[in-house]
Every structure is written in C-alpha cells, then in structure tokens.
Amino acid sequence: MNHTTDQRLDGTRREMKSPDRLLQNVSEALAHLVRNAVASVTTNAELLQDSLDETDIRQVNVDAILKETRRIGDLIRGVVDCAAPMEIKNDRVDLASVVGELDQDFKKAAHDAGVVLRFSIGEGVGSLRGDRKRLLEALSRIVENSIAVTPVEGQVCLVVSRMDEEEIRVRIEDSGPGFGSRPPERLFDPLFSGSSQKSGLGLSVAKKIIELHRGRISAGCSNLGGACFDVRFPLMDTDE
Fold first, then answer.
1. Which in 21, 105, 141, 189 has the greatest CB count within 10 A?
2. Where in the chain is the domain with CATH 1.10.287?
3. What is the pTM of this model?
4. What is the 3-state secondary structure (H, E, C) of 96-107?
5. CB atoms closer than 10 angstroms to residue 219
6. 207 in Cβ contact with 157 (< 8 Å)
C-alpha cells in the first residue's frame, strides 16, 4: 500500500470515528430505509382508498394510515435536517415577502383549527442575506407549532419590524398553554415535545436554520398568555 492510499484510509477512519459524521451516516441510512417502507405503505393505502366507495366505513381507517405516514415522513425529514450539514444560499431575501407568503400558507390551517392568525409587517423592514426557501421553512415551523398548541378561538400573532440599522426582528406569539414548568430553552432540544402529536424536531430545525443565517432565537412568555418566540436577523448592508 502506498503512502497516498494510507493517508486516504487514515482520513476515512478519522471521519468515521467523528460522532457527528457517524450520526449523519446512521440517520441518512435509517431515513432511506424508512422512506422506502413508508412509500410502500402510502402507495398501497392510496390504492385501497381509490377502490373503496366514499361511504365505506373503512375510509376512516385508510385516512388514519395516510395521516400517520405523512407524520412519519415529516419526522424523517426533521431527523435528517438535524443531523446532516445544511447548505444555505447567499441571496438577497426580502423578509417582508417571505412573511407575506407565510400568511397565505397558514390561513386555511389556522381557520380549520379555529385560531385567529394576525400578521403585521412594519414599513421599510429591509432585506438580509440568505436562503429564502430555508427561511420560509424555519418561520413555518414556528408558526405551525404555535397554531398546534393554541386552543380554539385563541390567537397567533407574527410581527416583523426593523430594530435599528443592524437587525430585523420577527416576533411570534400565541395564546396557548405556555411552558408550564418546562424551561423555555428546552423547546429547541431535538425530540423534546410537549405534544404527543408533534415530533419535537420542528423548533430544533428552525433554530439551526436561523443560526446558519447568523441570526438568533429565544423563547419566553407572551402577553397573550402563551409562548413568544423572538427571532433576530442581521440586516443586509445597504451597499451590497
């Protein structure tokens, strides 16, 4: 074996011994296996659904299967996003337009949940450097979490404002149950969830995306009685 080959093998061994790399490899392998299994279950459930009459009582069971397969799919995507390196674009992003799209995306979900959704965008908010799709994902995960924990006739409010010449602030509040005895910072721990219907990965992934944009997120108590998420992003230099 020559010197170059030895170096490559040593590098591979070091990479495999890295806890982060090992976690990434294991999570990606498991994700691949579970995705294939879920795809098979979903396909067969959809075929069964198409073959049943709309009044067939078994439609309820098929709907339950499809709902759970979607939930498992979301969980797998969350695990991979938590464990694997995430690529972020460096585009100019108008945060006001991202929040406008967010408003449209969640109107139906909020209405179906009986929750009042209020969005407010200040004037001259400005832009930041980053990945529009990932920013939309991060804020979506927070809003989705807030709607999920807010009772019927409750409120979820999102306010975007420019703090100064250096920061943009996104504040998301809800009138849900709040944190109880749980430390607010624990909400960002992977797999930590106060709901049996949530994977506990959404806020962890959101925090990762925000920090990759050189931003920061904190959680506290809302004046509405529930939780408040305070997100700050660095404002893009006007000379750029």
1. 141
2. 3-83
3. 0.71
4. HHHHHHHHHHHH
5. 20
6. no
Please report, in tens digits, the pLDDT of each residue of the chain (240 residues total).
455 555 554 554 454 455 556 666 666 777 777 778 888 888 998 999 999 998 899 999 988 898 888 878 777 776 667 767 788 899 999 999 999 999 999 999 999 999 999 999 988 888 999 999 999 999 999 999 999 999 999 999 999 999 888 899 999 999 999 887 777 877 787 755 555 445 567 888 899 999 999 999 999 999 999 999 999 999 987 655
| Region 3-83: CATH code | 1.10.287
Structure tokens at 8: 């490559």
Using an 8 Å Cβ cutoff, are 160 and 125 in contact? yes
Rg (C-alpha) for the chain, rounded Å, is: 21
Residue 124 CA neighbour count, 13 Å, CB half: 5
Superfamily of chain region 91-234? Histidine kinase-like ATPase, C-terminal domain (3.30.565.10)
Long-range pairs for 23-29: beta carbons < 8 A, 24 or more residues apart: 23/83, 24/83, 24/84, 24/85, 27/79, 27/80, 27/82, 27/83, 27/84, 28/80, 28/83, 28/84
**Cα 21–Cα 27–Cα 33 angle in degrees, nearest 5:** 140
